[in-house]
Structure formats: structure tokens, C-alpha cells
Amino acid sequence: MKAIVTVIGKDRVGIIAGVSQELARLNINILDVSQTIMNDYFTMIMMCDIGKTRESFNAIQENLNRTGETLGVKITIQREDIFTAMHKL
Amino acid sequence: MDKSQIIETLQMIEEEKLDIRTITLGISLLDCADENGVRARQKIYEKISRVAEKLVATGDAIENEFGIPIVNKRVSVTPISLVAGASRDNDYFAFAQTLDRAAKTVGVDFIGGFSALVQKGYSRGDAILIDSIPQALAETDIVCASVNIASTRAGINMDAVRHMGQIIKATANKTADRHGFGCAKLVVFANAVEDNPFMAGAFHGVGEADCVINVGVSGPGVVQRAIEKLPDASFDVIAETIKKTAFKITRMGQLVGKEASERLGVPFGIVDLSLAPTPAVGDSVAHILERLGLDNVGTHGTTAALALLNDAVKKGGIMACNHVGGLSGAFIPVSEDAEMIAAVNAGKLNLAKLEAMTAICSVGLDMIAVPGDTSAETIAAIIADEAAIGVINGKTTAVRIIPASGMKIGDTVEFGGLLGSAPIMAVETGSSSRFIARGGRIPAPIHSFRN
Q: In the prediction, which pLDDT does B280 show?
């Protein structure tokens, strides 16, 4: 199952490293990454495969929340279906 | 992975307040009928708490995984007059208490179906149910009531219209300490639909399956934002833009409904395509109309603007989901829409214009507060006018009107939450009491010579 991870917050050293490390720890594979800085704000969208993790969706979100707090950014994870449902026939 | 599409969806949810307004689980209670009222209520409680047990948890899980808010989880049931009618009880208040208790046990926000369908006449159960409404709404918390008093095929039951005028007054009096709040949970319908997921008018029709999931979407903010980008566009472009936006919004409803249906093992009924506003800033249907070029909702051009919006939302939404149903149209509740409230307060939107607006969109005079001393006959006549619009045009119309006890024009009654706050609106002063006193039935209309 694929999911989209979105990371938004004030830019600083180590955001990509911190998020990737946490995803790796949860056994979540990153399939695609897009990242920019807009007005000092760090914005990253990642497509991930959550099929191999043993954690529940809630637990993943909770772990990412903690990582987000440490890094000072907001991390959300959503199943990919919501985006495909809206934009693809 | 298309970044711009992902950002668009996130913006809709975060900034434009796109949400799923409700997942409503319809439950048939026909198999709970019993000649012993106590036993019937036991069966009702048992069935609702069993069937809807996982509804709230499932809704929360879907909300979490997809990242789209699901504002309400609700239950609708078979009109209680049909179920309770089998019993020998002479008062159905206890049935309302059972619904309230069952709904609280499963944790839903509202339960609808304390209802009767009397467009042509009353059965014994219908009469008892309607007479039980004031106490039911005053002494329960989350039970909603509705009564269908007219249909295109049956005409308008004017005895029921008169009766409902009295019931609305009685409900307001019983909840006078809350300025007639009970009336916010009571809808009087013409051409009521059987699969409506929205409150207060939801009930589970007898033609429906045993249980079914219906979904109501929202998203006026998304449509408003799309139109804002086109300040000078022609109506051709506007209609196309609304259609595309409605498609995207409705796809969310389809996705959430399908997912809920699979997880609960309950068939997926319909998506209701209504644009439902909330009192929050940026979540207003009236604001969309103003963005189309009107100084304020209620001015000349409002009806045409609403007609365009309503039609384009349906056209866009219909292709986005398997089955469309419910009310499916733009809602124009006064108290639940910040711009409607502002227009009434500024003296620029009155009942006459609202009535015209209801002729071309769902669902009727909704969440209108009028002075507390408005007579039962005047309220009945307002219901009759709305029913006439619905019956002649072959559409659903409804009246949810609150005679706000102790209040007069210039006052505002606060309901709180999604129900918002309603400025007291003026009603006509000429009496309709001799008209209402006639009783009987206004015959069903002819369907040729449509002018």
C-alpha cells in the first residue's frame, strides 16, 4: 500500500535525514521525493510503500508526529488513494 | 507522483475546509416492531447498538488514514411511526428516549428517524408520533424528527400542515429556556427522500436495504476559491469550473463511502451532492453567490446565481460517484452560513427572497428563526407555501423554522456548533388563519401544461 508523506515547516539542517531515518526505522520504503524551499519554508512530499511495515497506520502517524516535534516540522501521512481518487479517472 | 495535484488536495482540506460532512448509517427497524412497546424498544436498542457498533471507530480510522475530516457520524432509522405503530402504546416519547440512548451508546452525533409520512393521511401511529414530537425533542439530546406532509403524487395534506404548525409552536414552548432550540431538530418535508444522510431530516426509507451507508460531502470553500480565480469569466467558464470542482469534492465522498462500506460490511447507498455550509469563515454558500458578482446574497440575481451553482454541482458530482441520492443540491440554511447571517442582519435578505431561492435548490426554508410570538397558523402557512413549491416542481422542499421564544426582530438566537446563530426574521403580518382552518387536502398537481 502506498502513502504520501508531507513535511512542512521552517527550514533547518537535518530534516530530510531525520524523516528518512524514522521511515527506515519503521521499515517504510521511500519511492519518490520532491522537495523545495518556499519563503524559508521547507516543503517535502514523499511517496512511500507502507506494505512492509509492521506498524499500524495510527502508530506510523504517532511516530512521525514525534519526529516532527523533534525537527520542528509538521509531518502528515495519508493513503495515496485520496489523491488518485480526486485526480485520476 | 504529481506534486501539484497533491498540493491542490492538501490545500482544499487545510485551507478551503473540504470535509466529509457525514457518514450516515441507515438501519431498518421494521423487524423491531412488536405489540409490546417495551419489547419493541429493547429490540430497537439492541439492533442499533449492534449494527452501528463500529461506525464511529471506522469513521475515525478512515479520517486518520486519508487525512480528510469526517465531521459527523450519524444513524438514520425507519420512520418510528411505522415501527411503534404495531405497539399498543399511546405515546412514543419512550421510543425517542431509546433512540437517544442507543445513539449515545454507539457514539454518533445525531440519530434521525423520529418520523412520520402523512402526505395523504394519518395512521394511528402517525398521529401518536407527531403528538410525541415536542416532548421528544425537548427531553432528548440528539434525536431528530421529521414529518412528510406533501408529495407530488399525493398533494398537500393541509390537516397535517395545520397540525405541524401547532407542533412547532409546542416544541418551541417546551424548549423556551433555549429559545425554541427543539425546533432546530425538526423538519417538515414535501417529497421527502428515503436516503438522505443529512440531519435533521434523515430517515431510513422502507424501500432501502436492511442497513446502508450514505455519505454527505461538503466544500463550499473549495468552489468559492475556484470562482475567485475567475473574476471576469463568462458563465460558460464558471459553470465548467464548478463542475470540475464538484467532481473532485464528490470523489472524496465516493472514496470514503466505499471504504466505510467495505470495512463495515454494509452496502454503500449513495453520495449526497449537497454543498453544505458551516458558520465558519470561508465555508459559505452565500459567499459563492457573492463571488459571482452580487453585492450581497438576497439582491436581484441571487436566484439565477443559485440555479447555476446548484445545477453545475449536480452535473459535476454525478459522474464522480456510482449512485447519487439524498437531497443533492446547495443548502441555504440561514443560521449555518456566515454570509447569510450577515445579509439578514443588514436587512438585505428576507423570507420572500429565501422562498424564491428554495424553488431552484434544495432544500427549503432551513434554520430560519422568527419572532417567538409568531402564530401556529402563520407557521403552517409558511409550510404550505414551501410544500406547494416542492409539490408543483416535483422536488424536495422542507421547513425548519424556529419561533424563538421571547425574541423579536433585531435579536439573534445562538444555537452553537454546526447549527450556528440565527437573526430573527420578520414574517408577514396578515393573518392566514382562515386559510389554515379549512383543512383537507390540496390535490396533486397535473403534469401536463407545465407553466
A: 82
